[in-house]
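My hope is that you will study the protein record below before we discuss the fold together.
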Amino acid sequence: MNKTISRRALLQGGSATLALSGTLAALPRLLLADDTATRTFDPKPGTWRNFEVVTTVQLRDPSADATVWVPVPTINTHWQRSLSSETSGNAEQTSIETDPKSGARFVVAQFKADTPSPSLQVTSRVQTMDRAVDWKSLQDNRESTATLRRWVQPSALVPTDGIVRKTALQITKGAHTDVDKVHRIYDWTIVSTYREPKVRGCGVGDIKALLETGDLGGKCADINGLFVGLCRAAGIPARDAYGLRLAPSAFGYKELGGNPASLKGAQHCRSEVHLQKYGWVAMDPADVDKVMRQETSEWIKDAGHPLVVPVRKALFGGWEGNWMAYNTAVDVTLPGAAGASLPFLMYPQAQSGAKRYDSYDPDNFKYTITSREIKAL
């Protein structure tokens, strides 16, 4: 059927030298025997890339009537065009629906309990582009007051009061412009958090718990979520965009790309902040942490390492167009879903009767995602 530090305390080479504890301590320099070369990470806007993304769901052992929800790209901006999404498979009913609160779109497929080998395929087509802000020139910063107000509001796992606000005010003390404030928060996030590979999926994104425990390890939903929450608490509109790496990085960083033949585990969220003179600007401190932790066989614990510097510089104001965004939705309630709302919508979801499938376990869900880059759409 087809249907259309432990916290690390010193900000090295950054715009601030502030740690939550107030203690300054030099980060250890780790000389790597296997990879000390400087690389270039230099996104260049201007060229659209065309991708076709296919998500295939094959439910394992549904015990009752089942429902599957698959996010589809919704974002349409100067850096992404979400063109179309189509479905096929043996569901009794399939539709593409829109979350009325956030505008996020997703496929809803319903299967009868006696459906043999329930399957759903979702094919989406998008165009993406590198992003990089020109800090020397003013940019189009037009945005509605309602939108800006929305993105300083808290969400369920990203509060803006209590320890989050206290931390944000400490980090930004003495900073006078929104750019300076965001730069301090960006640098603080990179050197105070760390990538923890053992965290499942993209993490939970409970930033209050991160700060209260003092253990700032996590993945993109945790690290970029913390960055976004601190920006909001400092009065700067900020949001995460939830999406998927589609292709290898053109800049040689193996951890910053996806394998088009199998995008299992390629989900990744990136951040945006709205600056008064530049509009919405790209940010991704979590990927800086990822390079530090996983790009080489040794954990790089120096944010000034030559392998890290190009990424740290470029991801303050830019990102590579080998990634697409599904949406910027938070606290999403899926129609007909049992249980609590989702903090974000980046993974396929399913339930059979009262059983929820584990979206972080694609092999037993079961689902696969692939992509291919094509000349034109």
Remarks:
- The helical segments are 145-150, 162-172, 178-192, 207-213, 220-233, 285-294, 309-314, 362-365.
- The mean pLDDT is 90.
- The chain has eight helices and 19 strands.
